[in-house]
Amino acid sequence: MAHTHSARSRAIEPFHVMALLARANELQAAGHDVIHLEIGEPDFTTAAPIVAAGQAALAAGHTRYTAARGLPALREAIAGFYQQRYGVTIDPQRILITPGGSGALLLASSLLVDPGKHWLLADPGYPCNRHFLRLVEGGAQLVPVGPDVNYQLTADLVERHWDKDTVGALVASPANPTGTVLSRDQLASLSRATREHHGHLVVDEIYHGLTYGMDAASVLEVDDEAFVLNSFSKYFGMTGWRLGWLVAPPSAVADLEKLAQNLYISAPSMAQHAALACFQPETLSILEERRAEFARRRDFLLPALRELGFGIAVEPQGAFYLYADISAFGGDAFAFCRHFLETEHLAFTPGLDFGRHLAGHHVRFAYTQSLPRLEEAVQRIARGLRSWQG
Ligand SMILES: Cc1ncc(COP(=O)(O)O)c(C=O)c1O
């Protein structure tokens, strides 16, 4: 008999929303106008100056591997960005360019987690985190979080859940799926709590830049030893270019470089050259306009959903998601999503994709569609609620 697939691959769950997406595509192919609020990427295409830089890089023959840590010029540009946005000085030597934030997650989990060891993660949270931990034969200790703690781990929760196998905590600010942000003080106390246990604090800052009416603090403002994951996908609008970065303490860099060399050799060369254009004033002003557009969308969709009876107890300050409690309508979130897809041709994501904690009562809406499409979506939601028999 053929050898079966590894236990680790079998333990990894698919995105549940994929089943809905397949159905959405069928409906679309049959000519229906499907509104997609399930998609976790900006609807905007990459800004023109970045595309132009990418094209120029291809024409100039920048089509080979780069150093495993990434292009020195890009690492310096990112260090300059930390200085300018957060007022923190980061040695470019501490920055590794990775294939997406996903590549940074792969490096950090490979570096920090031995078999049988765990990181604390908030539930709900980004599902791939626990799968990366599983891949390195470690695990996730899911900590249920709700509106009372802004859907984020706190120092107190870290304290209460830390056990002999815990080696770190991973938080995201702004978070997916809830959009909540950790303050500088909260980051500092999480840092103290993990440090007391000689553990690591890993902060996913992938949605930085996409905060509304405020700027998110970087953990690097308060903790030089933290590991930071970031990405060109979301604020910089480069999902398909597969580019991100990891900031690590100096003592970790040599081992991370070794892992990078072996795991993927380097991040895409042309994408790195293109990303050099991200930090030009011309590009940043386009990105800031887009941020303002996301803010308008949130300011429309949040009250509209609350008005319809969705429970969104805390105002999300960032990312482009609204995580909504559907208890008021009864029934299960997956069936609820299916109902809206079949009857209203509206796609959004069931809570099950983000963890276990009250997942059957929650759904996530991504406001990665234009305002007119969101207005149409709200009309469909209002109508679909009338025919929902939870
Ligand atoms: C919280 C979070 N972290 C990491 C990622 C990975 O993104 P990428 O690999 O495109 O940077 C995502 C993507 O949706 C995310 O939501």
From TrEMBL:
<dbReference type="InterPro" id="IPR015421">
    <property type="entry name" value="PyrdxlP-dep_Trfase_major"/>
</dbReference>
<keyword id="KW-0663">Pyridoxal phosphate</keyword>
<dbReference type="Pfam" id="PF00155">
    <property type="entry name" value="Aminotran_1_2"/>
</dbReference>
<dbReference type="InterPro" id="IPR050596">
    <property type="entry name" value="AspAT/PAT-like"/>
</dbReference>
<keyword id="KW-0032">Aminotransferase</keyword>
<protein>
    <recommendedName>
        <fullName>Aminotransferase</fullName>
        <ecNumber>2.6.1.-</ecNumber>
    </recommendedName>
</protein>
<comment type="similarity">
    <text>Belongs to the class-I pyridoxal-phosphate-dependent aminotransferase family.</text>
</comment>
<dbReference type="InterPro" id="IPR004839">
    <property type="entry name" value="Aminotransferase_I/II_large"/>
</dbReference>
<dbReference type="GO" id="GO:0008483">
    <property type="term" value="F:transaminase activity"/>
</dbReference>
<feature type="domain" description="Aminotransferase class I/classII large">
    <location>
        <begin position="33"/>
        <end position="381"/>
    </location>
</feature>
<dbReference type="InterPro" id="IPR015424">
    <property type="entry name" value="PyrdxlP-dep_Trfase"/>
</dbReference>
<keyword id="KW-0808">Transferase</keyword>
<dbReference type="InterPro" id="IPR004838">
    <property type="entry name" value="NHTrfase_class1_PyrdxlP-BS"/>
</dbReference>
